[in-house]
């Protein structure tokens, strides 16, 4: 590691310099990307700690293999066996610290449009100091007086924030579907190839949705019982058909020529995914067979074998889940996403058709304005003329994500019996949250279709 690289890393930790790796062979990184990566790293670190706190396996291993474990727990006043550092209450406190960290930065970065300001420098640097502040806030939550009142109140705050995080993701999904269709339709005005792609992708999406519906009907229902599953699969399948017919109805087409089956295909696939996820999260139903033995019904037989290896299922499933949460946070904090939530969209005249239209990086015009080499990875300062994403909105989304993680890890309203090893054991609260999310998604999309009809004097743009 060169002296210049060491000096650069010190400036990153305790100064305003952007963070980068010390390997010259690494591709160059933008300052805006580096900043978001560092905040995401903090988020991942705290999330892992929360998962460890909810793991009885880790707690038992620590008791077995750490010498003087009991004395150490008493020394740090965490209880006789460190019971204050495990369980849902510990997760609530750690997530309280992380949520406060991102919320304070949300307030601190409101209306920053220039990366040259003092507040922008703090947002983009001083990473070691911010890590210490985050650790102090997470630790300080354990010393809040009147813990019972705090936990009860914080649970409702967490549920509200978690629902709001889900709502933002659903709004952005609907916006994504409309943006996709508008972008490719704009290309179809110049090249017929885009019409072919639209038809092909729409056919694939509906094939996936129909296949998912048929498979759920086969594996999650049976001739006797499974009434919940039958009703919900039928209702959600009917909703997908309904919104598809509304999308191509003449009255909607007159007001919104860009409305089509591509958007409803995206929504139908997501509805089928949420339906499958909800049915997988439902507590198992049991009946007595002819030998008076309890057997589980309304779930695929192969899933019962998978759940026998709980550690494998939990580890793999938790990694995928929180990877999706992190991806949602990063993709919903771009300038385009924050403007979409305000109802600001690109006009059809400025649309340029692209296969990967959603992956266009922010701030390309400024990307090569200033390049800095410090003996390691090259840093491109892409915010010299202005910020390429909303700092405040970025921190607000991570604030909501902190609350969503807290509620998800502690099984929402079944917190007292929550364990990370039983993360995928069905509970009614998780089941209904997913089902309601499914219906909210359909309602949001349906509103974007009928709103111009309900309010003909108002201008709508999607």
Automatic annotation (TrEMBL):
It is found in: Cell membrane. It comes from the Eukaryota. It catalyses: a 1,2-diacyl-sn-glycero-3-phosphoethanolamine(in) = a 1,2-diacyl-sn-glycero-3-phosphoethanolamine(out); a 1,2-diacyl-sn-glycero-3-phosphocholine(in) = a 1,2-diacyl-sn-glycero-3-phosphocholine(out); a 1,2-diacyl-sn-glycero-3-phospho-L-serine(in) = a 1,2-diacyl-sn-glycero-3-phospho-L-serine(out). It is a multi-pass membrane protein. Signal peptide: none annotated. The keyword Lipid biosynthesis applies. GO terms for biological process: defense response to virus; innate immune response; phospholipid biosynthetic process. InterPro entries: TDE1/TMS (IPR005016). The chain crosses the membrane at residues 37-59, 90-110, 122-144, 156-176, 197-221, 227-248, 260-279, 312-330, 391-413, 433-455. GO terms for cellular component: plasma membrane. Keywords: Antiviral defense, Cell membrane, Glycoprotein, Immunity, Innate immunity, Lipid biosynthesis, Lipid metabolism, Membrane, Phospholipid biosynthesis, Phospholipid metabolism, Transmembrane, Transmembrane helix. Its main location: membrane. PROSITE patterns: PROKAR_LIPOPROTEIN. Belongs to the TDE1 family. This is Serine incorporator 5. It comes from Catharus ustulatus (Russet-backed thrush). The lineage of its organism: Eukaryota, Metazoa, Chordata, Craniata, Vertebrata.
